Amino acid sequence: MPRPGLSPRTSPPPGVEGEDAARHPGAVVYTAPEEAADYVTQTRVDFLAVSIGTVHGRLRGTPQLDLDRLAAIDAAAGVPLVIHGGTGLSDAQFRALIERGVAKINYYTALADAAAEQIRANVAAYPDGGYTALLRDIQTPLRLEIERCMRLWGSAGRAEELLTHCRPWRPVEHLIVYNVAAEAVGNVPELMAEGRAVLGAIPGVRDVFTGTAVREEAAYRFCWNVRFCHPAVIASYRDHPAHRAFADGRFRPIAQNRISIDYLATGDAHGTPPPDSSA
């Protein structure tokens, strides 16, 4: 659903995800450059998925890409672009997308088709075979197609270059222990389920654990453990509108007796310190 103040033209192409998307093609809805720029400004996203003529799944007919529109979006948005529905495009079309700012291409259906073709070959070769026989060598066609795409898209052999731009994870445990009034105890399971869904979707959150003390006489009966990938997430999580709305509107009104502490990981189960743990 489009953000407030943005026209539906920024929506992704209609249809459904996956292999049967060709049965629900709908009409392609194109992204407007000015609205793409507005969306990036409002949301501060790192990447932007745009609609310029591709669709999810198996496309009916020849893809007609609006490359001029893509170039205009690239100039206006100022962030790397994403294309959903890469299956069925030609090598030349892939190159044209990349030349116009596309940094990520979603490419599922072609890989699923390669796996299915291998399974059909296995059925013919091993008509009485079981599960293991039907999946024999299924990795090979997937590997070959992935390698072909990596070479075509220009990502092959660039792992070291990529890693120079990456910051290592420095896991943080955001731990909250709390109690609620007796009359609110019955609402806690619903609150936990809602929080796992809402907070778990915030960028930088790896996992949300909610728990109840094993012993009812424990000083604090309930807990949250929100796992961040890096200390920098502490501030962005605190200020994120989804967290603020949940914390102020749902959690804090009933969890008035609580303690919150952030812990930086110092080692794994074998005592190995995390990357960059000395920083």
What does this structure look like?
This protein has ten helices and seven strands. Helix 1 packs parallel to helix 2 (67-77) and helix 4 runs antiparallel to helix 6. A four-stranded antiparallel beta sheet has the order 5-6-4-7, covered by helices on one side. The longest helix is centred in the middle third of the chain and has 17 residues, at 109-125. It is an alpha/beta fold and 279 residues long. The chain has helices at residues 33-43, 67-77, 91-99, 109-125, 131-134, 139-153, 159-163, 188-200, 232-239, 241-251, and strands at residues 48-50, 81-83, 102-105, 172-179, 205-212, 222-228, 257-264. The protein is 37% helix and 15% strand. Among the domains are: 8-107, Aldolase class I (TIM Barrel), CATH 3.20.20.70; 172-264, Alpha-Beta Plaits, CATH 3.30.70.100. It is extended.
Roughly what percent helix?
Answer: 25-40%
Give the helices and strands as they follow along the chain.
Answer: HEHEHEHHHHEHEEHHE
Cα end-to-end separation = 41 Å
Helix-strand category: alpha/beta
Determine the strand fraction and express it as a percent band: 5-15%
CATH fold-level name of one domain: TIM Barrel
User: Can you name the CATH architecture of one domain?
Assistant: Alpha-Beta Barrel
Q: Characterize the biggest β-sheet.
A: 4 strands, antiparallel
Tally of separate helices: 10
- Compute the gyration radius: what is it? 24 Å
* CATH homologous superfamily title of one domain: Aldolase class I
Please write the CATH class name of one domain. Answer: Alpha Beta
Strand arrangement across the biggest beta sheet: 5-6-4-7
